[in-house]
Each structure stands twice: as structure tokens, then as C-alpha cells.
Amino acid sequence: MPQSYSLLKDGDGLERTCVGLFLNKEFSAYEKFWLDFIVPLTNRPIDIHFKTDAELQAIGRTHNDICVAQLHYTVLRHLFRTCELRTIKPMSLDQFIEAITRLLAALDVADELLERRHNEDDPWSESEGREARVGWRQSHGDSLKHLRRYRNRLIHGRVSPTIIIKGTYSRLRVPRFGKENDYLDWRRVTNGSVGSGGTLRSDFDSPNNLTDLAWEETLNYLESSWTRYLLKTKNN
What is the C-alpha separation between 107 and 109, in angstroms, rounded? Predict the structure, then answer.
């Protein structure tokens, strides 16, 4: 029975590592969904790999279920890399860009998973995956849109301006969420005042602080979304 399994005992190396890092405390719904939905798709206790098409058909499962399982694991991998980067103190600008990018990648994949879980679109179509993400946000709201805008600004536009605060351990500062488009003209930074209490300084924060804030918002979103939309439906 699936109830005899656990991530710590029966997950792969990444899953076992993440249990202690953040799953138990911040994203416990991940394991609950894994236990109810994903374990039956695998060959456990023989191995952790997915069943064949014939075996899936015998238990009433489809390719769409495999797609959801793969997306579920992808969310975890992006979160793990972000977790690694959060331990670097202070972060460089490049490390910050990667941390935000990987964290928001987890969010993108999560929204695709949430939509695909309840429809039968082509599981092997990436274009339908993009449509799933958009569809989910249109029908359920987009509470973390500010984080995605920030990520898009980091990777699609010119490099973010930075300032250096003298006399502090974590000296690098980058624009806060919502301020990313206020300093497209770098001269506003290079010619501005960074003195204590100045407007420029109040609009910037350390990469570590911003990553921690984005992490907390994203993990809260994942935990609540998994609990509300995935755990209430049992298809085993």
C-alpha cells in the first residue's frame, strides 16, 4: 500500500535531501501528494521508475498522470537549487539572478501542474504547457505576479543596476520588488545619493533578503495550492 512509503525512506537522493532542508517544515504537501498520486505510478518496491503504458492502463492511469508526476519532481529540483544558493552569504549579482530564476521556474512549473492535473491536454506538448500556466492564472488569480515581473526583468532586460553600501558585511544592493523598472536609466544610481535614509537606498535591498522574501512567498503559495487543489482529489 502507498501508505507504507515515505520520501525519507523511499524517495531518490534529491527527495531524501529535501525532506530535511525544507519539505517537512515548509512544503509538507509535496510528500502527501507524492504518496497518494505518484507512488502508484511507479514500480515500487521493485524500483522507482514509472510503469509501462499497459501497467498504467491496468490501474486506470494515463500519460497525463506521468506528465503531472514529472512536473512535480521538476518543481522540487528548482527549489533545491534555490535552497543551495540561499546558503551563499553574501550572494553575488549572478547568484541572485540564478536564485530568482530557479525559484520562479518552480512557480511556472507549479502553475502548469495545477492546470494539467484537472484537464486532459496533450501531456507532451510544451505549447499546451504554456497555455496551461496562463489558463491557471486567469482562472485562479495571479498573486505572485510581482515576482514573475521581477524575474522577467532580470533575464529579459538590461542588467539590473546595483549599489554598494560601505561598512556592511553584505554590501551589494539590488532594486526591491516593484522597483525593478524605476532605475532603467543607470544614471539614477551612478549619479544618485546612497546616503543613510536616502530614497535610492530605501529602494534597494540585499540579494539574500530579497531571495528569502521570494522563497517564503513561493513556498506558502505551493503549500496552500497543493493542499487546496491537489490533495482534495484522490484518483488512486
Answer: 5
What residue type is assigned to position 66 of the chain? I
Categorize the per-residue pLDDT at 121 as very low, low, confident or very high, splitting at 50, 70 and 90. confident
The helix/strand/coil state of 184 is: coil
Distance CA 100, CA 152 (A): 10
The CA distance from 27 to 193, in Å, is 41
Interval 71-100: pLDDT, tens: 999 999 999 999 999 999 999 999 999 999
Q: pLDDT tens, 137-183?
A: 999 999 999 999 999 999 998 888 898 887 666 689 999 999 999 98
Q: How far apart are CA 183 and CA 179, in angstroms?
A: 8
| Span between the terminal Cα atoms of the chain, in Å | 11
Contacts of 72 (CB under 8 A, 6+ apart): 30, 33, 34, 37, 38, 113
- Could you list the beta-strand ranges (E) of 77-168: 163-164
User: Cell digits for 130?
Assistant: 504554456
CA distance 232 to 40: 17
Highest mean pLDDT among 9-18, 118-127, 152-161: 9-18
